[in-house]
Amino acid sequence: MSQSRKLGLAVAQMGPVHLADERRAVVKRLVEMLKEAKARNAKFVVYPELALTTFFPRYWMTEAAAVERFFEKSMPNADVEPLFTAAREAGIGFYLGYAEYTREGRCFNTAIIVDETGKIVAKYRKTHLPGHADHKIAAPFQHLEKKFFAVGDTGYPVIETLGTKMGMCLCNDRRWPETWRAMSLQGAELGVLGYNTPSQNIHWPEPVHLRMHTHLITLQASAYQNAMWIAAAAKCGYEDGYHMIGGSVIVAPSGEIAAQSSTEDDEVITANIDLSLGDTFREHVFNFAKHRRPEHYQLIVERVGAGDPLPHDPDQFN
Amino acid sequence: MSQSRKLGLAVAQMGPVHLADERRAVVKRLVEMLKEAKARNAKFVVYPELALTTFFPRYWMTEAAAVERFFEKSMPNADVEPLFTAAREAGIGFYLGYAEYTREGRCFNTAIIVDETGKIVAKYRKTHLPGHADHKIAAPFQHLEKKFFAVGDTGYPVIETLGTKMGMCLCNDRRWPETWRAMSLQGAELGVLGYNTPSQNIHWPEPVHLRMHTHLITLQASAYQNAMWIAAAAKCGYEDGYHMIGGSVIVAPSGEIAAQSSTEDDEVITANIDLSLGDTFREHVFNFAKHRRPEHYQLIVERVGAGDPLPHDPDQFN
């Protein structure tokens, strides 16, 4: 087994951000949790997706109205600057999700990684946008990510920072195994993400407990299958009456949960993770160079949707 | 939600097959379990990997000695014919794993699907061979799949049989997300596999409980992520003193376990599975055509082992 390489890691779960909450008040909550993370000897903090506002894709409105109220035109901006300052002063890096409005007027569901000097060292724009673009009048709420955001153009960045290689994604991306493979094939040792996951599925009467169940099993299996640590931060609880799951976790490359939130409110969870545990899995069961067989994986890039079975004649194999 | 489409499904877990056990006696056990599956109204039975012999890759020997004793030169052969006959008479299809010696003298870790008329309709040769090819003298036992078997050349067949589309794999394949994607991209609704999983990891002191844990979370996450049912059959218990895990399961596309073995012996588990549950997941969260983004999955086929992070400059995304 490899020699221990420790990293103090924190996940800062957020309780609800209501429509009436101002960004400055939200950022104050983020700074408070940064201080707790620092006191618990963390060097990196993971915040949720769309951390600065309510999960606005649940509301029908024009794109212009959404941009005006919920998107960031620059980063850091005056409202968010106190978080950058506090993190730099504490010598802590962080991951933060927000709605990005670009110079060219494009809209993305975005996350950044900021290093311990306050520099933005990575930007990720969400690849797998769930939900719909049309107005579902009969639904109890909307899930308009396909209306308000363009599909991300960054791929899955993996960056070297804080003595590790860190990959990033957002929310629904975590359910797609391709997400994690794109990171582990770049040597990622730690994957970080934020999420806003409504408890109710508006598309079919999915039992509510499955939302937590599928969240946890996909993170656990993905951490194991990619020999990575995973840290996932929820925004959760009732935002103006609409419930989202908590379940923020730090998952080990063994697929075991090393830390998990126990509230649906602002809550910091931490673990002093040993990055070398991933090395052990990478050397043996998931020694990719020794075991992977891309010649049998071609359909993954050749097809978008599912198609017919490939022709198969068992008599050809005798 | 889609209209219910039921299939009576059985997994026939096997207890140990010792070195002294003859194939005819083993096949008798398989036939016994087939009868129980029939009595419980199953239409398809999943048997383990290398179901006809002990898990011989744990023993160091020459290839010739292994072929002589543990490989099948034809299928069905006289020893296995009683299973084919019993299944045909019962109108039941089955999946069976065995060591295959081909006409050209090649060796594969193979599984077949036999339809309810007794016809071999699919053959799969294992892609992801775990273990090693050298003699590890200091190890308590060997794991010589890389010595005794060639890497499979069939890809992942998906075939239409018994009113469903069925994909197949073997043992270690289940830990690789590419396996399941290769099936679901061909429209598989049910994935079947057998396995022999030693409780002890000879490569590093992995806690023994993790072998069951990672087995279950990967099957659960893979069923969910691919909107498939999965049926997995162990050969388990102490084979001549070497322990392998049980944990045979039928997993739903929700990632929930619908049936699980409770012994480490011959044991039939069944579920009357509703294939339409997969349709529901395929229509919504895992509507591949709507959500997948192969332009960001290229590394999966471009790289075998992990490499350096791709260049990333966050300032290019403004």
TrEMBL record, chains A, B:
The keyword Hydrolase applies. The keyword Hydrolase applies. GO terms for molecular function: hydrolase activity, acting on carbon-nitrogen (but not peptide) bonds, in linear amides. It comes from the Bacteria. Keywords: Hydrolase. Pfam families: CN_hydrolase. CDD domains: DCase. Residues 7-275 form the CN hydrolase domain. This is Predicted amidohydrolase.
